[in-house]
Give the backbone structure.
Amino acid sequence: MELSDIESDLTSVLYTEEQIHAAIAEVARAVEVDYAGREPLLVGVLKGAVMVMADFARELKLNAQMDWMAVSSYGSGTKSSGVVRILKDLDTDLHGRDVIIVEDIIDSGLTLSWLLENLKSRGAASVEIFALLRKPEAAKVHVDVKYVGFEIPNEFVVGYGLDFAEKYRNLRGVGVLAPHVYS
Ligand code: XMP
Ligand code: MG
């Protein structure tokens, strides 16, 4: 789905597919240098990170594995609850692995700070984070994020994996959701 297909549901367009792909390629080039000679395990956080993972993993000129976790911190609303539950765990043993968590967005940071500690405690050699989007103004806890695509204003965004009530994930770009959609 194109941004123009749901124009009236958005107050603004933040990033087009081309801009997102360029940002992902830039991160991939940095990761290729940082992980040269190693085989990182990319851990995608379902469902939001599906698009980032698909593009990032294919862009990467390194052998890399993919695994997935599903955690819940949000429900179907637009505010973080801070309560994290594992809905689906990894299949991979993390002992000695170089893990890169792949996320769609860091909002309060509560989900990722919890996930970071959780994965570190499983014996990984290293754990870093790649988040496509970050809302610096929404941060409630500090999270060390090594790779970031874009810093965005503190507004609810959809598209490129990000949903509102499971809608808009299949949008090719990212836009700010119009208040009339959720109020
Ligand atoms: P926290 O607040 O724990 O939230 O950093 C992380 C998770 O919340 C979801 N999230 C969003 N989803 N538009 C969305 O569609 C947003 O603007 C937004 N902000 C946070 C997302 O699942 C993320 O992993
Ligand atoms: Mg997510």
